Automatic annotation (TrEMBL):
Protein name stated in the entry: mRNA-decapping enzyme subunit 1
Taxonomic classification: Eukaryota, Fungi, Dikarya, Ascomycota, Pezizomycotina
Primary site of residence: cytoplasm
Alphabetized Pfam families for the sequence: DCP1
Biological source species: Clonostachys byssicola
Disordered: region residues: 1-42
Length: 230
């Protein structure tokens, strides 16, 4: 009797349910992701955009910043004594373009010099349409401001703006922009006074948030009178 031929072992196959799944990284990551999503970070804004947002809280009509001086000091001229006095107003200076008044049929552009005071709550705003003359003398930008008819002191009032030259061209650039903006404002012509413009920041601190030219010179005259009486 012959020996039985041994059977060949059959190839063992894994059942289909035991085949390891191929990993899909993106699918796995999606399944592991929490149900909530984090909000994207707010968009970054430039320094100019941040400065514009601050100024518009005081004067919403400001549309564009034409030039910036990080540090400026305002002087007033005393004609009787023929001298310049510090006004007490100093801070960052902006030369700005404003939108036209809503009731102005000609929709004339407006321009101003805005000094954001670092020494108090009162900021100085000079309407360049009220300035009759601008010149640069030594380190001062001199502006002659016309009387608007509401002041107790008649005649022009003279302001001097001293700009800290933190960079080589800072003083020259700001002086040139003030002169060009003044020329544009004079060509456009003066608009009727609509009263003080109050943005949210002005409303929060009251009427003291804006220092008029008349207030500035009145306080300087009172200070000189008090000094002379002492």
């Amino acid at each position: 009797m012959s020996k039985a031929t041994p059977r060949r072992s059959r190839h063992n196959r894994h059942p289909s349910n035991r085949i390891p799944a191929i990993s899909d990284y993106e699918s796995d990551a999606a399944q592991m992701q929490p149900e909530y999503d984090y909000a994207p970070p707010p968009p970054t804004r430039t320094n100019t955009e941040l400065n514009l947002a601050v100024l518009q809280r005081y004067l919403p009509s400001i549309r564009t910043i034409l030039s910036i001086a990080a540090s400026a000091v305002i002087y007033t001229f005393a004609p009787a004594e023929q001298r310049w006095d510090k006004s007490g107003v100093e801070g960052t200076m902006f030369v700005c373009a404003q939108g036209p008044l809503p009731d102005d049929p000609a929709q004339r552009p407006r321009l101003c010099v805005f000094v954001l005071s670092r020494r108090g709550l009162e900021n100085l705003v000079v309407d360049l349409a009220r300035v009759s003359h601008v010149e640069v003398m030594d380190e001062l930008v001199i502006m002659r401001v016309e009387d608007d008819g509401s002041s107790t002191r008649r005649g022009e009032q003279v302001l001097g703006v001293w700009v800290h030259n933190d960079k080589t061209e800072t003083r020259d650039v700001n002086a040139a922009v003030i002169q060009e903006s003044w020329k544009a404002a004079r060509v456009a012509g003066r608009t009727e006074d609509q009263g003080p413009e109050l943005g949210p920041a002005m409303q929060a601190i009251g009427s003291e948030g804006r220092l008029t030219i008349d207030d500035l010179f009145r306080s300087q005259a009172e200070a000189r009178a008090a000094h002379g009486a002492s």
